[in-house]
Amino acid sequence: MKQVPPQKAEIILQTALEQFAENGFHSSPISQLASRAGVGVGSIYRYFKDKDELIHAVFKQVDEELQQTITHNFDSTLSDQQQHIQLVVNLIHYLKERPHEFKFLEQYYSSPYGSEEKHAKFLHAEVKEPPNPFANLFASISQKNQQKLPLPLYLAMTFGPVIFLLRDALSGYVELDDALIEQTAAASWRALET
Amino acid sequence: MKQVPPQKAEIILQTALEQFAENGFHSSPISQLASRAGVGVGSIYRYFKDKDELIHAVFKQVDEELQQTITHNFDSTLSDQQQHIQLVVNLIHYLKERPHEFKFLEQYYSSPYGSEEKHAKFLHAEVKEPPNPFANLFASISQKNQQKLPLPLYLAMTFGPVIFLLRDALSGYVELDDALIEQTAAASWRALET
DNA sequence: CTTTCCGGAATGAACGTTCCGTCAGTTATA
DNA sequence: TATAACTGACGGAACGTTCATTCCGGAAAG
Are residues A108 and A133 in the same domain? Predict the structure, then answer.
């Protein structure tokens, strides 16, 4: 009996993530990916039907870990402001340490792959479902505002700046230090107050 | 002598923009592009050295028109707040009407093409140059803040939400009406105040 | 007639996918 | 325990397709 049969699939997924992030989907021939992973071309097709399925599998893995991380570091006992700032700061820290994941997601979403997909499924559907810390935070913020805060605006002011900043940091235009991260979190909170 | 020699080049550029925006770079064979433009394959290579040059040419055209539009609708006699809100509102309106341009830019920047490029050249270099309304606005805002406003933060809070919102609008997740646009502009201004 | 422009068939390379021989590990046989 | 038969993971050569690019014959312009 093999206790670790799907280890190779993990290696392929991890390598694919790096390869795609660095070179893009089209400049990542399966052959190159295979040699980088130390694996035969044929083996990749043992675990994934075709290249598209591989790409979606990488996305699924990255997406799930991201969601988990976000929903994990959530202390619902804090004030709205503290929760929001914690969310933004943690998110930036997390993605800053994972440039491959970030680049992959960017590419995935702005390609036909992500467009045809649920896209912001997480950001929209997830936030609305009541029994999760996200929904509570949004509901709470929204309620205290004078004019009702639309969900799209909340998402745009929360995640828009984060993405923009990470992009610039990755391009080397910005030194994304802790001070800047905290300023960003504070600023995006300010934007939500009425 | 031809009085309208580059007319065909214009048609190719325009068609390429649409084709790329709708199908992505790799799912846009030159042959398909040619027939869509009502042009022979060979003709495309008369005006553009290869596919890469075509892609960059499309970018250049889109980028230049965008920059021009932004710097044009700028009334430097208004207050900082009014200028900022005008900027954001105009930008959203402009891009909302041009989904092809928006999708193309997104794709370009998150692909190896844009990455190897100047990227936020416009957003960074341009803003800093003194003799333009942008630089003045940023300088003015920055100066009035208690703690100095870093340029990256200003850019992130100004353009980040815009991009995020447009993305969602294009995906059909958000009805981007005038009320939402104005709320966004107001919110991003709030974020900049100290 | 000469020159410039144009279209699209032809070419060659790159790539995704398939297919098959090899081999390590496992099970059956004696 | 030793040996033979089996099984399925594995690599990579080979295949067929797709596509960027070239090239040439003809049309239009002068």
Answer: yes
The CATH number of residue B88's host domain is: 1.10.357.10
B179: nearest CA partner in chain A: A150
Nearest CB to B163; choose among A23, A119, A160: A160
Measured distance CA(A72)–CA(A111) in Å, rounded: 29
Count of A-B CB contacts under 8 Å: 126
Among candidate residues A113, A67, A89, the one with its CA nearest the CA of residue A176:
A89
Give tens-digit pLDDT for A98-145: 999 999 999 999 887 877 665 555 566 666 666 678 888 999 999 999
**Shortest-distance nucleotide from A7 CA to C1':** D9
Residue B97 lies in a domain: yes
Residue B8: which domain range?
Answer: 1-48
State whether A153 and B184 contact (CB < 8 Å): yes
- pLDDT, one tens digit per residue, over A151-174 is 999 999 999 999 999 999 998 889
Cα-to-chain-centroid distance, residue B156: 15
3-state percent helix, strand, coil for chain B, nearest multiple of 5: 75, 0, 25
Shortest distance between the Cα of B165 and any Cα of chain A, in A, equals 6
Last residue of a domain, one of B30, B48, B66: B48
Shared-domain flag, residues A79 and A117: yes
The total number of structural domains that make up chain A: 2
